[in-house]
């Protein structure tokens, strides 16, 4: 038997990448475990490679979006949704606008119900491989399809965020420690024969067995439904471990830190000396930043993510620039509607090519999960167009316009943060609602605030906060000037009042968060049971 050997020039970068893919890439199946037990020698070149690829993608974002749009339409042309909306006749974005109206989950339910009944080729070819189960404010439980084509978006984006951080910071040491990632229960039910559960619980099933020793909390603890029991077990499992990366939504992490400090008598940075990276998303980090930093007791790097059951939309790719990089090449086609036009019969629907900085847009997606012109309910604002970086500015339904002022989350958050910083005051949680007077007295905005320590001069705090809101929102300023509204009123929520409130409505822990704004008194009236009586 004869053997022939063919010699070729070796590209070192490609060789490293291929070796890495063969031996390690399966380790990167999800954010919860993607770097455990990976040696720095392997992590660094791979991080560098991915970082370079992402930088290249910044320059092709518009072309990538056009290609994704064409491929999505082509892939779904023979689905029921595609037939109903004449996908065979769609050649460009203008055709898409004419044939596919904006929808929220309620308008999609008829198609979802058909999938749940076992039908194929409804929103996407075949059937979803999962339903991500999530709660909605008006729709009750929502079932968001995840397909074999869309699941890499959820898995790879968090990986890319950590790889970019590695490449930029040079910090790879956290890869060998323990990572905590709180997920929903990994126990899945079947709906219409399709495995169904929380997205984080679904992702948990993709963790290789040989990596589970690095993931915390344990599978069994993640299956605990009661949040307080779950938190106790998480503390028990992690308090003596070498925690190097902790992730979650900020209010959950603060509860976890508070319990660790209570148990150990140490700040988090002392308790976990190798803790170096905190990954957060789900809500604006800034209102929680001061208290979290105080709990840690030393500087720490943070990475911000913008995930949802409908897709992983953006991630922080750099430590030196504001905003998160829009995920322009991951199976999602983005549209943007100016917030003031949202809900109108024919709103302006912009592609990435036409967006402007500093404008609030409702985020609309079409994806390889079978979501079409789908309104996810979030609003975003571009802070850079080269590359395309965004911040999450609020929720479509979270606003106050009881008197025509249309106050949004970004305005209340930036106002209270500025005043709290000026007066050196730390906040725990807050929400705002209108108070509409039914008597001769004027109406006002009522702020429910839980302070870590109450201001020495609450009147001064209120005055400054009201003035800042008037600067932020000209309509609010006009209402105050015109004596239509009284200045805002602050109602102090007792310590742990928001936690007790969330517990009372069955939404304590996990990915649940308190809405910043409501246009009615539903939350405000319930919170009256948790205010300070003085």
What does this structure look like?
With 534 residues, the chain is of the alpha/beta class. It folds into 2 domains: 29-394, no CATH class; 399-530, GMP Synthetase, Chain A, domain 3 (2-Layer Sandwich), CATH 3.30.300. The protein has helices at 12-23, 40-58, 61-75, 80-84, 93-99, 105-116, 151-169, 199-204, 219-222, 227-238, 250-264, 268-271, 286-296, 409-422, 458-472, 474-481, 497-504, 522-527, and strands at 130-136, 140-146, 178-181, 189-191, 194-197, 215-216, 243-248, 277-281, 301-308, 311-315, 324-326, 332-338, 360-367, 374-385, 388-395, 399-400, 407-408, 427-435, 444-451, 489-492. Strands 6-3-7-8-9-10-11-15-14-13-12 form an 11-stranded mixed sheet, with helices on both faces. β4 and β5 (194-197) form a beta hairpin. The protein is globular and about 65 Å long.
